[in-house]
Amino acid sequence: MPELPEVETIKNDVLPFVKNKIISNVVVRNAKLRWPVTRGLSKILVSQKIKDVMRRGKYLIFYCDKGSLLIHLGMSGTLTIVEKNTPAKKHDHVDICFANGFCLRFSDPRKFGCVLWVKGDPLKYKLLRNLGVEPLSCEFNSNYLFSKTCKSNRAIKLLLMDSKVVVGVGNIYANEALFRAGVHPETLVKNLSKRQCSIIVRAVKKVLADAIKAGGTSFKDYRKADGTPGYFQQKLLVYGRQGQPCKKCKTILQSMRLGQRMTVFCPVCQKTFGKKLS
Predict the structure, then answer these.
(1) Residue % of the chain over a pLDDT of 70
(2) Which residues are paired to 254 by β-bridges?
(3) 84, 202, 247, 261: the active-site residue
(4) How far is 237 from 223, CA to CA, in rounded Å?
(5) Which domain holds residue 260?
(6) Tell me: the pLDDT tens digits for 140-161?
(7) 146 and 120 belong to one structural domain
(8) Catalytic hit among 2, 5, 135, 185
(9) Number of domains in the chain
(10) d(CA 196, CA 181)
(11) Of 56, 58, 105, 224, which one is the catalytic site residue?
């Protein structure tokens, strides 16, 4: 699933092509996504200008003259910039075309994404209004994370992946951040000190910033807006490396299921503070 760095990379890639551009045509080939494409989207969007694009969590918000277009990439979605007459493939569901001859193409093999029209403030829309803080913002700090740990019996990895606490971290980057922080993923958050929370916050911010710089992590379907892969997978220290030697201490990396997601860790480099979840 595209996580925050991948969505941020796509936002940065498409922005120069769509900002201040007039929408000339919209083609909806398949409206049956997780949330159906807004009915009459073509009539709504044609002749509107895209004023700006921002990311909130894993959602992209395209601010237009009379409202906002909300796009989520789901499990396997991509947004690419293509020339207007580029033939559509099987899973190319929506094209948003501009007078300059380019189209923003939404593709999603698993159909778990969304393309929705939102009137009013999109940040108050039902899918966005309960999201947690942005991990790269000043709001995500040691005080904030520590306030979420009190009396909680959750594992720290599950807390980091809770979008109501902090958005967009996802499985890949939770694995990587906890390795960098030297914290075992099963550590109960109530056992973490404020200092340890500070270390985790710094690790989360650093790994996300590094991933954005590398264009995200390409596994399976993810591609940048120009169709090329991201390169952060070449810098992964633990994710996808179970059974291989730790790059720091050479101990064999272990794996387990935590919250139904694959979790990879080093039993030597990542310490447990107090009791573990298990």
Answers:
(1) 91
(2) 265
(3) 261
(4) 21
(5) 142-265
(6) 999 999 999 887 889 999 999 9
(7) no
(8) 2
(9) 2
(10) 8
(11) 58
Q: Is residue 245 part of a domain?
A: yes
Q: Which pLDDT value is given to residue 92?
A: 96
Nearest CA to 178 out of 194, 197, 162 is that of 197
**47 and 17, same domain (yes or no):** yes
Q: Which two tokens stand for residue 121?
A: 């403030």
Residue at token pair 């694959």: 262
Supply the pLDDT for residue 100.
87
Look up 16 and say whether it is catalytic. no
H-assigned helices in the chain: 4-18, 41-45, 142-147, 156-160, 170-181, 194-213
- Domain containing 93 — which CATH number? 3.20.190.10
Q: From CA 105, how far away is CA 114, in angstroms rounded? A: 13
Q: Do residue 211 and residue 258 come from a single domain? A: yes
Q: Are residues 60 and 86 in the same domain?
A: yes
Please list the residues that pair with 271 across neighbouring strands: 183
**Secondary structure class of 250 (helix, strand, coil):** coil
Q: How far is CA 85 from CA 16, 101, 235, 239, in A?
A: 20, 8, 37, 39
**Who's near 7: CB < 8 A, 6+ residues apart?**
55, 58, 59, 60, 73, 168
Instruction: Tell me whether residue 261 is one of the annotated catalytic residues.
Output: yes
Spatial distance between the Cα atoms of 59 and 72, rounded to a whole number of angstroms: 5
